[in-house]
Amino acid sequence: MTTPQLLTTVAVTRAFVRAARAAGKTVALVPTMGALHDGHLSLVARGRELADVVVVSIFVNPLQFGAGEDFDTYPRTLDADLAALGAAAETADAVFAPTAAEMYPAGAAQTTVHAGPVANVLEGAVRPGHFDGVLTVVAKLFNIVQPDVAVFGRKDAQQAFLITQMVADLDLPVTIDQAPIVREADGLALSSRNRYLAEDERVLALVLSSALRAAAEASAAGPAAARAAGLARFDQAPDVRLDYLVIVDPATFEPLEDDGVGDGLALVAARVGATRLIDNLALTFATAG
Ligand code: PAF
Fold first, then answer.
1. Tens digit of pLDDT for each residue in 1-36?
2. Are strands 262-272 and 275-285 parallel, antiparallel or unpaired?
3. Cβ burial 206-218 (10 Å sphere, 16+ → b, else e)
């Protein structure tokens, strides 16, 4: 068991990365908010494949939480996170876990990244300002760690899209890698927020992945049929509050035409009790409906 080195300041983290680079090593960054689960560990393993040195950041970023969201109650489990990384087959070399004062010494960033129009739809429509907060902290993490590659999970597909767009728009010298969603055996996508679910809610939450599978099964008949099949699963789950189930073009995040062909991405968000969950599945539409 190798426990990663804990770094808590920007200066020490920069020195760590400088030493790695001086030894000719490449660096991968895996940004997280902690409460690590097997999905995060798969991102670390992916980072290991892509670079010599892996840095995981753990920071619950206040900038990306709106009023009334779960910033105060978001699980902060640094000791357990370090232990999980230490016990993992593929672990990180270092964990950058700064305080809010280290990241935002002036109290809040005065200069922020403003995400483009895709930040205003879907998750952004429900969580105004969320993606500006995400992009601002991710840009800061990129500047602190200066990784060759950064690994993000595909479960947060809109976030991964916007980060990729920011890197292209701002010419940031980092490659973005998107790693597949990790699921429980029954289909539930792993999420730090799953720990909020009571036992009966955990069962109800399966409607998200089951709706995506239904959409995939109906996809031969086109996007409209796929969406209808997914929505029908929610009709059978009245205790789950659907926010959206849409099929977008993954290259633009624009909704696919009802009879569109080519690549699609089915995205779903719903509330189970007080917990808001998201999931997605890539689809291919070979024939028009
Ligand atoms: O996906 C997350 O955990 C967060 O949004 C991220 C990318 C670490 C930024 O705080």
1. 778 999 999 999 999 999 999 999 999 999 999 999
2. antiparallel
3. bbbbbbbbbbbeb
Give the CA dihedral 218, 221, 225, 226, nearest 10 degrees.
Answer: 40
Q: Would residue 40 show up in a list of annotated catalytic residues for this protein?
A: yes
Residue 243 alpha carbon to ligand 1 centre in Å: 21
Residue nearest atom 8 of ligand 1, based on CA coordinates: 32
Separation of 270 CA from ligand 1 center, angstroms? 19
Instruction: Kindly give the number of the ligand 1 atom that is closest to the alpha carbon of 31.
Output: 8
φ, ψ for residue 234, nearest 5 deg: -70, -30
- The amino acid sitting at 236 is Q
Q: What pLDDT sits at residue 108? A: 82
Atom in ligand 1 nearest the alpha carbon of residue 61: 10
Q: CA–CA separation, 91 vs 289, rounded Å?
A: 46
Q: Is residue 60 within 6 Å of ligand 1 at its C-beta?
A: no
262-272 sheet: strands from edge to edge: 240-248, 262-272, 275-285
Rounded-to-integer distance, Cα 259 and Cα 131, Å: 30
Q: Which structure tokens are listed for 239? A: 């205790």
Predicted TM-score (pTM) of the model is 0.96
pLDDT of residue 2: 79
Residues constituting the chain: 289
pLDDT in tens, 31-70: 999 999 999 999 999 999 999 999 999 999 999 999 999 9
Strands (E), the chain: 5-7, 27-32, 53-58, 94-96, 149-153, 175-179, 240-248, 262-272, 275-285
- Phi-psi bin for 245: left (phi > 0), alpha (psi -120 to 50), beta? beta
Pocket lining: 194 vs ligand 1, CB cutoff 6 Å: no
Q: What percent of the chain has pLDDT over 70?
A: 99
